[in-house]
Write a structure and sequence with these properties.
Order of helices and strands: EEEEHEEEHH
Structural class: alpha+beta
Cofactor: Mg(2+)
Strand order of the largest sheet: 4-1-6-5
CATH superfamily: Nucleoside Triphosphate Pyrophosphohydrolase
InterPro entries: Nudix_hydrolase (IPR020476), NUDIX_hydrolase-like_dom_sf (IPR015797), NUDIX_hydrolase_CS (IPR020084), NUDIX_hydrolase_dom (IPR000086)
Number of strands: 7
CATH class: Alpha Beta
Number of domains: 1
Helix content: 10-25%
Radius of gyration: 13 Å
Protein name: NUDIX domain-containing protein
CATH topology: Nucleoside Triphosphate Pyrophosphohydrolase
Family: Belongs to the Nudix hydrolase family.
Strand content: 25-35%
GO molecular function: hydrolase activity
Oligomer: single chain
Shape: globular
Length: about 130
């Protein structure tokens, strides 16, 4: 399954979300729809999940995290992790109806995320150098 994730880091912590009814935190983002680019999917998903309007011109590639999906019966998730900046005047991230909670995570929180999220947290130092 192809997905996108937003690499949003502040003060050395990665923004993560917990969906209602789930026990793990995920990198904000989601599935890429047919005919949609990774950048388009990221902009759409972040607006839906967090109310943040990303600047499409600021979207740039990071890396790919591939791992078994949490609760997907061993099905692999290929998450294209992207950097992007909020558009001027965009609000701070706020949970939507499907998001129960936001958290700012460090590598010490690896037990709170699924396998693909662990890959991202393991690479947090690389992410910090790129932002």
């Amino acid at each position: 399954m192809r997905t996108v994730g937003w690499l949003n880091v502040r003060d050395g912590r990665l923004l993560a979300v917990r969906t209602t009814g789930k026990d793990r935190f995920f990198v904000p983002g989601g599935k890429v729809e047919p005919g949609e680019s990774d950048a388009e999917a990221l902009v759409r998903e972040i607006r839906e999940e967090l109310g943040v309007r990303l600047d499409p011109a600021s979207v740039r590639p990071g890396f790919v995290a591939e791992a078994p999906g949490h609760g997907l019966g061993g099905r692999m998730v290929r998450m294209h992790c992207l950097y992007a900046e909020p558009a001027p005047g965009s609000p701070e991230p706020t949970p939507s109806a499907e998001i129960a909670e936001l958290a700012w995570l460090t590598p010490a929180d690896a037990h709170r995320v699924p396998p693909a999220g662990r890959i991202v947290l393991d690479r947090l130092e690389d992410v910090l150098l790129a932002v």
